[in-house]
Automatic annotation (TrEMBL):
<dbReference type="InterPro" id="IPR055210">
    <property type="entry name" value="CtpA/B_N"/>
</dbReference>
<dbReference type="InterPro" id="IPR001478">
    <property type="entry name" value="PDZ"/>
</dbReference>
<dbReference type="Pfam" id="PF13180">
    <property type="entry name" value="PDZ_2"/>
</dbReference>
<dbReference type="GO" id="GO:0030288">
    <property type="term" value="C:outer membrane-bounded periplasmic space"/>
</dbReference>
<dbReference type="InterPro" id="IPR005151">
    <property type="entry name" value="Tail-specific_protease"/>
</dbReference>
<feature type="domain" description="PDZ">
    <location>
        <begin position="88"/>
        <end position="170"/>
    </location>
</feature>
<feature type="region of interest" description="Disordered">
    <location>
        <begin position="398"/>
        <end position="480"/>
    </location>
</feature>
<dbReference type="InterPro" id="IPR036034">
    <property type="entry name" value="PDZ_sf"/>
</dbReference>
<dbReference type="Pfam" id="PF22694">
    <property type="entry name" value="CtpB_N-like"/>
</dbReference>
<feature type="compositionally biased region" description="Basic and acidic residues">
    <location>
        <begin position="408"/>
        <end position="437"/>
    </location>
</feature>
<dbReference type="GO" id="GO:0004252">
    <property type="term" value="F:serine-type endopeptidase activity"/>
</dbReference>
<feature type="compositionally biased region" description="Basic and acidic residues">
    <location>
        <begin position="469"/>
        <end position="480"/>
    </location>
</feature>
<keyword id="KW-0645">Protease</keyword>
<dbReference type="GO" id="GO:0007165">
    <property type="term" value="P:signal transduction"/>
</dbReference>
<comment type="similarity">
    <text>Belongs to the peptidase S41A family.</text>
</comment>
<protein>
    <submittedName>
        <fullName>C-terminal processing peptidase</fullName>
        <ecNumber>3.4.21.102</ecNumber>
    </submittedName>
</protein>
<dbReference type="InterPro" id="IPR004447">
    <property type="entry name" value="Peptidase_S41A"/>
</dbReference>
């Protein structure tokens, strides 16, 4: 896909499941001459009329139509979706990396919202919220019992409105209210630091609008701290995806110019594309954001960390660097999201996201429902895997499409392992909370076991590879 296609839209990877997506700014009929199934359309109109006239109470006509569209698209696969006004706004916020809120990266601990990190310069940062703080109330609502999504929605809102967070700070054994004025937040999708002299860690949490610029800035800072970098760990764990151009750019930063990064293939002509390590395929603002990076980046020893939560754009990067033998991929088998969705606006506030292609690594591998298999398998902790078995992967989703590269193989051991792991976690949480598994250490911390093994690999030391993990074949669920 070259410059002509990029004028028509921009490429994104969905935030939740890492769906490779093309965003069209205008809606066009792909095949207006195709015959319509008139009998079925007449049935649809008849049902619409019956519901409107005979249902127990009056129904909204527009809602009936949008529900019909939503149901039709949802029946295709897990990643095709109709966006109404609200969900389309959320989708665009997710890909832009901008939203209105308080500015904290969060997780959950004991049913409470845990502050992983306040975003530097955000309202929460200025209000003194710290990493490790637990949020027990949002305004008058207790957090206990809320899902993470519900808590996030309560903290977000309109610009210049206030929200009161009740914070429990373990280190001080006290709770206190913090009043924060919401404002537009730009998510920081790239973090980096020198772990020790000569060795650096760079984490991409999502591929968003400014990820490439932030990536280049962080790398330049690392090289200023140590111009003779001996090794770099690129951390893509739990990265669900984002803008395709960003994944191509980050791959290109480490690869020779013009080599293939990823290709796509589907029915329509524009879905047949090859993306190369060239500014033409990733530069969105006219200039190359990577041009000032040190030449040594092309040859610095590189480890890519992945896990079951690494999806789509993350898999593009890991697959490209693995196929070109530019990096050692370490961790667990990735999510397996290798289908392409096109998002076309139906109106200024609504859109349709529909699966149009699969994407492939440079060697021609389909990632769909299989994922990237690491070169070196790693457990989550020194004691083994706690949560890996229960994480959902593409192959676990109903109606997922196949890889297109042969029949899928039933793997009964996969489902059995998930059921056993879930049972153990439920028993530990319900009967003996002292024996319940502890949350995994923060990525990039001194207790981060996979990161320590990646460093050992870079230094030529012994790596404590997993003795239990094996490649997971896609499950034989319904395919389209």
């Amino acid at each position: 896909m070259g410059a002509k296609t990029k004028v028509a839209g921009w490429i994104v990877v969905g935030a939740v499941a890492g769906a490779l997506t093309t965003m069209q700014l205008t809606a066009t009929a792909r095949n207006p001459s195709a015959a319509l199934p008139l009998e079925e359309l007449q049935q649809l109109a008849a049902v619409f009329g019956m519901v409107k006239s005979d249902y127990v109470e009056p129904v909204d006509e527009k809602k009936l139509i949008t529900d019909a569209i939503g149901g039709m698209v949802a029946g295709l696969d897990p990643h095709s979706q109709y966006f109404d006004k609200k969900t389309f706004k959320e989708f665009r916020e997710g890909t832009s990396g901008r939203f209105v809120g308080v500015g904290i990266e969060i997780g959950m601990e004991d049913g409470l919202v845990k502050v992983v990190s306040p975003i530097e310069g955000s309202p929460a940062f200025r209000a003194g919220v710290k990493s490790g703080d637990l949020i027990t109330k949002i305004d008058d609502s207790f957090v206990k019992g809320l899902t993470m999504d519900q808590a996030v929605k309560k903290m977000r809102g309109e610009p210049n409105t206030k929200v009161v967070l009740t914070v429990f700070r373990k280190a001080e054994s006290r709770s206190f209210p913090v009043t924060i004025t919401r404002e537009e937040i730009r998510v920081q999708s790239v973090r980096a630091k020198m772990i020790e002299p000569g060795y650096a860690w760079l984490r991409v949490s999502q591929f968003q609008d400014r990820t490439v610029e932030d990536f280049a800035t962080k790398l330049a800072d690392l090289y200023k701290q140590d111009p003779n970098l001996k090794g770099l760990v690129l951390d893509l764990r739990n990265d669900p995806g984002g803008l395709l151009e960003a994944s191509v750019a980050i791959s290109a930063a480490f690869l020779p110019k013009d080599v293939t990064v990823v290709s796509t293939n589907g029915q329509i002509a524009e879905s047949k594309a090859v993306f190369k390590a060239n500014p033409e395929f990733y530069s969105r603002r006219g200039s190359d954001p990577l041009k000032k990076l040190p030449e040594g980046l092309k040859s610095v020893p590189l480890i890519v960390l992945v896990n079951e939560g690494s999806a789509s754009a993350s898999e593009i990067v890991a697959g490209a660097l693995q196929d070109h033998k530019r990096a050692t991929v370490m961790g667990s088998q990735t999510f397996g999201k290798g289908s392409v969705q096109t998002v076309r606006q139906l109106s200024p506030d609504t859109a349709l996201k529909i699966t149009t292609a699969r994407y492939y690594t440079p060697s021609g591998r389909s990632i769909q429902a299989t994922g990237i298999v690491p070169d070196v398998w790693l457990d989550e902790t020194a004691e083994g895997n706690v949560f890996a078995a229960i994480r959902t992967r593409e192959a676990d989703l109903e109606k997922h499409i196949s890889s297109g590269q042969g029949p899928e193989v039933k793997d009964p051991a996969r489902e059995k392992a998930r059921e056993e792991a879930l049972k153990k976690l439920e028993e530990a949480n319900g009967k003996d909370k002292d024996k319940a598994p502890k949350p995994l250490p923060e990525f990039g911390s001194a207790e981060d076991f996979p990161l320590q093994q990646a460093l050992n690999r870079l230094k030529g030391k012994t790596v404590l590879a997993s003795k239990t993990q094996t490649e997971r074949k896609p499950e034989d669920t319904k395919t389209n």
